[in-house]
Amino acid sequence: MLDKQITCKNCEKKFESNFQFCPYCGQKANDELTLGVLFYNTISNYFSFDARFFKSFIPLMVKPGYLAKRFIEGKRLLYIHPAQVYLFISVVFFFLFSFISRDQVESMDKNFKETMHKADVIDSLDVKDSIDSLETKEIAESNKLKNVVTGVVEKEGIGASDTLVNSITGKKVEPKTVLGFNKRIVDSLTNIGAEEDRILEAMGMSEDPSAFQHKLYSQLLKLYRQRNGGALVQAFYDSIPLAMFILLPIFAVILKLLFYKRGSFSHHLVFTFYFFAFLFMVFSLLIIAEFLVEVPGFIVTLLMLSTFFYLFLAVKRFYGQGWGISFFKANIVAFTFLLFVLPLAAIIVGIGAFMFY
């Protein structure tokens, strides 16, 4: 007697009811949508968060180079895909890092505003000490002085407060610089409604600037006016995940140059994905530990050193060369990346964050 047939809700094909999964598309026969199923499917489909992850995690942490070697040998269903394990662990890391960066952003914003406020206070006190308040009020009401101040600001780029002090008391007031320019000049030009390009030139921009220079000074003026240094730091942190996707292939290129006869570029990229996943996992565990207890400095130092020894052992296992040559090449990879690639990337990311924050 034939079993009763049911229709798959996914592919709409009929099959016998004793099947737990559709033989045509693989969907579960009785796949009722519950809250648990919804979140499990979301995680498992996006990150492949299944038994393969747990099978991959321990070798990733304690067997340097093992997963990469197994993957290029063809064992690709037993372990999680290198790009997926990197994606999952990096998401966890940046989630944890966001708590630290938030405190740093708030601290930077507060310190920057306090610094700018102190500069304003000192500037106002200097002018107050140099000019009698009553005399200044009477003189400022005259059109003659107004014309003098405006004319000098427009023609010579001298701040209005400096002009008042110099014209009334004959006492030289040193210009107050902030962010690399004279704040009194900028404030004076802003107060009289000068065009932005005129203000930017007073800040140091050339008369015929390139698009990059114009944008640079515009952002500097924006930072001065808004006084939100924390937003600049946040923009830098937000750029790091994107920068890492650029650094990954660069790291693989370094490996390719050193091991040009040891597989294609994709092989080196597989190694890179697993190695960076290990790095993010170590940093994630360190952040978690910092939340719980204050980690001593020497422990942090040992963890940083352990990442190099992990790289050394991974290179030895994955590329199969001798201990000496593996140690030598691991040093070249580490120093090239840390001393040249990473600083250059930080500079580029910093400039990009400043230009577009």
From TrEMBL:
Record-linked InterPro entries: DUF3667
Q: What's in the keyword line of the UniProt record?
A: Membrane, Transmembrane, Transmembrane helix
Which stretches are annotated as coiled coil? Answer: none
Write out the transmembrane intervals: 77-100, 240-259, 271-289, 295-315, 327-356
The protein, known as:
DUF3667 domain-containing protein
Which organism encodes this protein? Answer: Snuella sedimenti
